[in-house]
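Question (not urgent): is this output format expected?
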Amino acid sequence: MNFGGNHLPIITTEIDFVCANQSPYNSCIGLDKLGKLMMHQCLTRIIFSLALLLTLIPVADASSIKNIDQFDLKQFYGKVVYLDFWASWCKPCRKSFPWMNDMTGRYSEQEFKIVTINLDRDPEAMHEFLARVPARFDIYHDPAGTLAEKFQLQGMPTSYLIDKSGQVVSRHIGFQTGLIAEYEAEIEALLTTQLLSI
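Got this back:
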């Protein structure tokens, strides 16, 4: 199977919109001027804090991208791993990058690691993608689809959640913004699980 080109089905999803306000009744109604001002200030502070945090996390560049031969899941033993397969030609893959960047920052002090596998045959296509969509997590280049074959991918993007003992506990085909809370709940649950010593 060839993973370097447009040969896997691309999983698409519509962008979800959330209605929120400062109403004491928590109903989806129009905001008054004070409510709008409070929300604007709150969002501004959150965005500023996240932007400041992300500046402390290095962006992946050509020198930091590793060859797939260097990949060994055992090196992440004791950590919860979010393993994501992506490619430059997969437009839905772009939606997951901001979230993965955010998760990298939020869980930088915990036993959590995001590791991604790029499947582009042409490394230049990968670098062009990363120039437009920066990544602040580990990237391995798998142009021959070696690891993709082992995981038997059925669509792009595809991610696997791996527990601290190295066992795959869940798989997600596609990236849906509406399921972000579910993804994060799974990660939180695994982070609270203690690794049993043998």
